[in-house]
Specification:
The protein is α/β, with parallel strands linked by helices. The chain is globular, with a radius of gyration of 29 Å. It starts with a strand and ends with a strand.
């Protein structure tokens, strides 16, 4: 059949597709890239293509931990047979090797950031195991340490292999999964690495405290552990996590390894996935929205690369508002007749608008189904604007809203799920308002102007082009927004874009500087000005964009903008994340890209409110697992947004060995609190109210090894 591996533009057509039994891999070339390992398959589905054709979609991880999609298109009957066979094989693996799927989350997690040395057949030579364990930074029993310390660099491969065999035999797997020829398959590698990954005295002691006389933990012990140590109540999610862990192991009790795996799994996060359950039925102006600036650029703002993949990466990371700069003034042979996306009057490369629209359509609602906003900065002539409208309609279809669709509708995130809204200027309406104001008889009315009449508005609307009719978010000039005159335009969804320097002036800063707006500066500003902005943004959308002089892409401080009530704080996300980007990801993690503002910020009382007392939280650090060595780069590719790392992978990075091995093993822990207005501090001791410490860094050795207590 026709096979496509997560590549939208260059489909490959193989001459064969075979199953390699030892490694449990489907392959269609001799390259390790062109393989799907059955134990790493997460989902198999069939999509009808019409005309008697069907496509099998196989979502899986490769040996590097990257999320991939294999698509096999053939007849309906053959597609159904493909899916049934793969699902049967997946069930066979789960039946014969209980816990294989749970073991493999560890392997894929490590392989995502550390090359484990697997070859094209999906197996690991035994003599590579100690090096792979060392690179993964696991505490693998004495045998690995002995192999690393006592067997020198000049030792022959047979000595090293003998050490690795002893380690592998300590955790054998079913014989049917063991390939011949002195190699380990991926399940064995996962089992061996897991043994070292969970070898922590602190975790072992916790298990022993709540295990029964047989050395296992039953449901009663698990609930007791959750209540006493985790401070989690007996809720269905806690019981469900226990049941899943036991079910994977084919037992009714937890072994130590299964308990340790559960603690290290995403299910045990302090904030579990899908925990954010805010009311999404309020007006759009009551929410902060994950927003990016110049979303197409990878790199700096002058010479960066414009690419469709930047949109795919950001949308898969949860961004809900992206910017598209549309131009038709480039004399490139490939772009003479089509609109392009680029940063005008710079050395940035170009990307076709149609390619961008297609990429957005494919990834807009994968991570979240909450509404997506396309901010269209238009520099095209009318004929190119029409081409842009057609491209959006062709790719987005009914998901693209027009002005007719929102008239009289409830404009909340809940009501707009799965929809795309376009933002832009309607020049005809802006001109009509200016003309209405200039023609008013100021002397007689005593007013500065008059609003546009219904007849004038209807006349403008009747002449709107296809492109303009799909601008559902319509821009109001900053001066009119700040003066409270947005109603004169009659827009159902007015929005204003304002630069960071103008925002600083409105917040009461005496001399806003180009280098940054920061929370400290705002604290010295006027609280009344901040509250006035909060009242305005409770009723209308506000987008804040960075100063034009930020050529290197350095971001503004989003905290001050969120504090002013600005819903859309545009950040440069097409670069390695700075502190501002990290705050962006922290605020919108697991929220679908929409976070409801505090009630005081939208009801007129003002944020932050006065507090009679501080809230204190204490964190006790029990154990640290799988830390990178000093100087080592080990990015994580797993998690809810793991699929995004397949696009613009240079922003994610890859494993890199430390430049030198440090002799000191002292750990240093840094914890920071960042408030959207108000007071906060972090310390190893309780701080007085007036202290403004953002964070402290302390040596773990000063506070009892790796068990400091941090008060916030």
């Amino acid at each position: 059949g026709r096979v496509v591996i997560d590549d939208l533009y260059e489909p490959s057509v193989p001459s064969f597709v075979v199953l390699d039994a030892p490694s449990l891999a489907l392959g269609w070339s001799w390259s390790s890239r062109d393989r799907v390992f059955v134990p790493l398959v997460t989902e198999v589905a069939v999509e009808a293509r019409g005309g008697g054709l069907g496509t099998v979609c196989v979502r899986h991880r490769n040996l590097q931990g990257e999320l991939r999609v294999l698509r096999v298109t053939s007849s309906d009957e053959e597609a159904a047979a493909w899916a049934a066979a793969l699902q049967a094989l997946m069930a066979e693996v789960a039946l014969r090797s209980p816990g294989a799927a749970s073991h493999l989350w560890l392997l894929s997690r490590m392989a995502a950031s550390v090359s484990i040395g697997g070859n094209a057949a999906g197996v690991l030579p035994l003599n590579s195991l100690p090096a792979a364990a060392n690179r993964s930074n696991c505490s693998l029993a004495a045998v690995v340490k002995s192999a690393r310390d006592s067997v020198g660099a000049d030792a022959n491969a047979r000595q090293l292999e003998a050490r690795a065999v002893r380690l592998a035999q300590a955790t054998p797997l079913p014989e049917w999964l063991t390939p011949a020829g002195g190699s380990l398959n991926m399940l064995q590698v996962a089992e061996v690495l897991l043994s070292g990954y969970t070898a922590q005295d602190e975790i072992r002691q916790l298990f022993n405290d709540y295990a029964n006389a047989d050395g296992e933990m039953d449901l009663r012990g698990w609930l007791a552990f959750q209540a006493a140590v985790q401070e989690e109540p007996d809720v269905p999610a806690v019981r469900a996590a226990y049941a899943r862990a036991c079910g994977d192991a084919g037992s009714s009790r937890l072994s130590y390894m299964r308990f340790a795996m559960l603690l290290l799994s995403p299910e045990n996060r302090a904030v579990p996935p899908n925990a954010y359950t805010a009311d999404l039925s309020q007006p759009l102006s009551h929410y902060w929205v994950a927003t990016s600036h110049n979303s197409y650029i990878v790199g700096d703002q002058l010479t960066g690369r414009s690419t469709r993949e930047a949109y795919m990466r950001q949308l898969l990371q949860g961004c809900r508002h992206v910017e598209i700069d549309c131009w038709d003034q480039f004399q490139l042979r490939s772009c003479k007749t089509v609109p392009v996306v680029t940063h005008g009057h710079t050395l940035c490369t170009v990307e076709s608008f149609d390619a961008v629209a297609s990429a957005i359509a494919r990834t807009a609602f994968v991570t979240s189904d909450l509404p997506v906003i396309l901010s269209l900065e238009m520099h095209c002539k009318p004929e190119r604007q029409h081409a842009i409208a057609l491209a959006l309609l062709s790719n987005l279809g009914e998901r693209l809203l027009s002005c007719d669709d929102i008239e009289g509708s409830s404009l909340s995130p809940e009501a707009l799920r799965g929809k795309v809204l376009c933002k832009g200027k309607v020049k005809a309406v802006l001109a009509a308002v200016r003309e209405a104001r200039s023609s008013a008889d100021v002397a007689e009315t005593g007013e500065a102007g008059r609003t546009v009449s219904e007849r004038e508005r209807a006349s403008v609307a009747s002449s709107e082009t296809l492109y303009v009719r799909h601008l559902t978010l319509r821009t109001v000039p900053a001066d009119d927004f700040l003066a409270g005159l947005s109603h004169e335009y009659g827009f159902a969804l007015p929005i204003t874009s304002i630069g960071e320097e103008r925002l600083g002036q409105e917040m009461g800063l005496a001399a806003p500087r180009a280098e940054a707006l920061d929370e400290g500066s705002v604290s010295r500003g006027m609280a009344g000005s901040v509250h006035a902005l909060q009242r305005k943004t409770a009723e209308q959308l506000l987008r804040v964009y960075p100063l034009g002089l930020r050529f290197a892409g350095k971001n503004l401080d989003p905290l001050v903008c969120w504090r002013a009530g600005a819903q859309h704080v545009a950040l440069n996300l097409g670069q390695h994340p700075d502190l501002a980007a990290q705050l962006h990801y922290a605020l919108f993690e697991d929220t679908g890209g929409y976070v409801r503002k505090p009630e005081e910020m939208v009801d007129g009382r003002g944020w932050p409110p006065r507090r009679e007392s501080l809230r204190r939280v204490t964190i006790e650090l029990l154990s640290l697992h799988g830390l990178p060595k000093q100087g080592e780069e080990r990015p994580s590719r797993d998690g809810a947004h793991g699929a995004s790392h397949g696009y613009v992978p240079e922003l994610t990075g890859s494993w890199r060995a430390p430049a030198a091995v440090e002799s000191s093993s002292t750990l240093r822990l840094k914890v920071s609190l960042h408030a959207i207005g108000g007071f906060c501090s972090v310390s190893t001791r309780r701080q007085p109210r007036q202290v403004e410490t953002e964070h402290v860094t302390s040596s773990a050795g000063e506070h009892g090894g790796v068990r400091p207590r941090l008060c916030g």
